[in-house]
C-alpha cells in the first residue's frame, strides 16, 4: 500500500510544530519543500529575448535566475562545450524551469506572450560572459519551450533587449526538488542483481501532492491537501475516502492510467466534516481536514 514515508511524516510534524512555535517564513518554506517535493520560487530578472513564432506572433523569453534551481552538475569550459558539440556528445544536463505562458501587451498595443525560463545564478553568470554558452543555452531553452507548449519559433527573429531585464509580469513557479514523496512501503533499496524486467508494471499514477496547515490563530485548525490531477476532467471521475487519519484517492475512466493516492497523517482529523472540491480548469483536487490535535510523539 502506498503511504507517506517515515521521513515525510516527521517533516509534517516539524511543519506543524513550526506553525506553533513561530518559525520564519523561509524555514517553513524549506520544510514544506522537503515534505512535498516541490518549492515555489519567484524568478529574479536576468535578461529578455524578443522573438516571433512561425505565424509572426511576438514572443518574449524572460531568462531569470533563482538559487532554488540546481546548478550545473559540474563546471565546463568553453573548449569542452565546443568539443562536445562537435562530437555530438553533450553528456551533461542543464537544469532549468520553464514557466507557464502569460499574455501581455506590447508598446503598440498588440497582444504578445511571455515565458519565464529560470536557471541557477552561477549558470547565468557564465552565459552573461560567454557568447558560446549563451547561444547554446538559448537553443536549449527555445527547444524546451517548443516541446512543452507546441510552439514553432523562428530562430532568425531572436533579439536581446539591451537594458530590459524582463517583459511583462514575472510569474511564480513551482519547481520539483525531489523525484517523489509517496513511495511503496518497505525497502527503498534496489538489489544490485535486480533486473528491469523484474520490476512490477505501474498500474496507477501517483499524483503530485501539497500539504499545508492553517495558521495557529485560525479556528478550527485545518490540514489541507492539494492534489494535482492533470488528466482528470470531471469530479465524477474521482473517489475520495477519508478516515480518522487516512486519505485514499482513486479515479476511474482516466487515460492513460488512473490515479491512486493513499496517505496517513500524524494527527487525528474530523472525518465527518471533511470538504472536497475539484477545479476542472486548474485540475486541482482540494481536500480540507479539520484537526482534533497535532501529535508530536
Explained architecture:
It is a single chain. With 297 residues, this protein is α+β, with helices and mostly antiparallel strands. It has 5 helices and 17 strands. The protein has helices spanning 6-21, 25-36, 78-86, 121-129, 131-149; strands at residues 2-4, 38-41, 44-53, 58-65, 97-98, 102-105, 111-119, 153-160, 173-176, 182-184, 208-213, 222-228, 238-242, 246-251, 260-264, 275-279, 284-290. Strands 3, 4, 5, 6, 7 and 8 form a 6-stranded mixed sheet that branches. Strands 11-12-17-16 form a 4-stranded antiparallel sheet.
Provide the low-confidence segments as ranges.
1-6, 179-201, 293-297
Average pLDDT, all residues: 75
N- to C-terminal distance? 24 Å
Radius of gyration, in Å, reads: 23 Å
- Return the string of H and E elements: EHHEEEHEEEHHEEEEEEEEEE
- The portion of residues assigned to helices is 10-25%
Supply the number of helical segments: 5
Structural class per helix/strand content?
alpha+beta
Sheet bearing the most strands, described? 6 strands, mixed
Number of strands: 17
Shape: elongated
Share of β-strand residues: 25-35%
